[in-house]
Amino acid sequence: MTVIDQVKEVPLKEYNSKKNFSKSPEPKGVDNTQARNSYVIQEHHARRLHWDLRLEKDGVLKSWAVPKQPPEQPGERRLAVMVEDHPKDYGIFEGIIPEGEYGAGTVKIWDKGTYDQLQWTEEKIEFILHGERLKGQYELIKFKKAGDNQWLLFKKKGD
Ligand code: MN
């Protein structure tokens, strides 16, 4: 029987590989597993305007780029493209990513707060947002037909 060494995935490797921290003011990705259940949406005026939804999970910010303003009315839904994990410190970042750098443009916090996780699987994430703008029950559902990283973000009806 062969023993295969478990290769521990380096946290935030993809994030760090896309950034030049000597040129951009964005925070460097470090391992930080103290839980806070933070939630943030950053309005990102990149080449295309989008909103970056981030939910703290296992020491990083799980992240989705939402091409249209996130849903505030029950029943509304938006496409959400899953992107690489971001460091927790990214949740307080606002500033300008310089021209020529990955994601160049202005980043502003659009909403922030905490969330309660109701369910988190590979295909479905149900949560309650306690933001300054967004409140109540939301759902992210994997939209397999549209491609690997495609999800749909719903504001649930009721409450
Ligand atoms: Mn972005």
Structural summary, described in words:
With 159 residues, this protein is mostly beta strands. The chain has one domain (3-19, 38-155). It has one helix and nine strands; from the N terminus they run H-E-E-E-E-E-E-E-E-E. It has one helix at residues 13-18, and strands at 38-45, 49-57, 60-66, 77-87, 95-97, 105-120, 124-131, 135-142, 150-155. An eight-stranded antiparallel barrel has the order 1-2-3-4-9-8-7-6. It binds manganese (II) ion. The site of manganese (II) ion has 6 residues, from strand 2.
Distance between the termini: 55 Å
What is the overall shape?
A: globular
Number of domains: 1
Bound molecule kinds, no repeats = manganese (II) ion
Encode the helix/strand succession as letters: HEEEEEEEEE
List its salient traits.
159 residues, mainly beta, eight-stranded antiparallel beta barrel, disordered N terminus, binds manganese (II) ion
SSE arrangement:
Elements: H1 13-18, E1 38-45, E2 49-57, E3 60-66, E4 77-87, E5 95-97, E6 105-120, E7 124-131, E8 135-142, E9 150-155
Antiparallel strand pairs: 1-2, 1-6, 2-3, 3-4, 4-9, 5-6, 6-7, 7-8, 8-9
Bound molecules: manganese (II) ion.
Residues 44, 46, 50, 52, 65, 103 line the site of manganese (II) ion.
